[in-house]
Amino acid sequence: MPQAHPATTSLVAALDAIRAETDGRIDITLYPDSQLGSELSMQSQLRSGAIAFTLTSASSLQTLAPVAGIPGLAYAFADYPPLWAALDEGPLSERIRDALGAFGLRSFRIVDNGFRDVITSLRPVETVADLHGLKIRVPPSPLLTSLFRSLGASPVTINLAETYAALQTRIADGMENSLPQIEATKVYEVQKYLSRTGHSWDGLWILAHGKTWDALPGDARGVISRHFDAAVTRQRQDFVAMNTQAEARLRARGLSVATPDRAPFRAALAASGYYADWKARFGAEAWRALERHTGPLGA
């Protein structure tokens, strides 16, 4: 994440607290802004043990453990209470954590990266038809790629660190992300229209290399876990506050803001077979675990 993202600032505070509490015995160095590579590269480095921890999006983890992407299903969650209930404990959380554990990864609580909106340079997105033909930058997520293809757009996968340049040079016509991420990456400097589509939620799992984690003394694991948990709680609060104020700040920076009716977008996805397809891919048990918190999807 960029340095200004609340996930980064909360983790910086946590690592400082860990160093202070242990008199420097535990020293974890943070590399923000994709300094160690793309998300997929860092996932590979984590699995090999080349890095001890990483913060990576649920959407990109879907390429490794498919069920990890299920919280980002389009219009599944409308608000935070059912989302955190699903991901902090219970069958859906257990299913995702077990899937990541099968790849030797130890998962902590998930960080908020928000409900995602569309920002473009060519036109506002007020109806489904406005997406047709637009090249929209997405992370390496099959779920988000499928979502935009189902709505008639042309999704293109671009590393986050390269997105600003891609938008500036019109390799992509727009991107989709949360408002704090749009602010942190400063893409508002090269885009014109913000559309509050709220089409998907994404979070960031804090993950550890399992063997490295298991080799640490028990007291060290306890200190790290406690401060990581506190960082997630703080980050979720900071993110909501930042997100609440972000639209006004982006308007002040010159963006035109539209708030489309979301029901036609969800209806178009259902008609395209998007929900039926992902129900088949995720499997009936995972789908039931999701619908415990969301209600029926795809109707």
Automatic annotation (TrEMBL):
Keyword Cell membrane: no
GO biological process terms on file: transmembrane transport
Keywords: Signal, Transport
Keyword Cytoplasm among UniProt keywords: no
CDD domains in the record: PBP2_TRAP_Siap_TeaA_like
Protein family: Belongs to the bacterial solute-binding protein 7 family.
Gene Ontology CC terms, in alphabetical order: outer membrane-bounded periplasmic space
Cell location: Cell envelope
Protein name (Swiss-Prot/TrEMBL): TRAP transporter substrate-binding protein
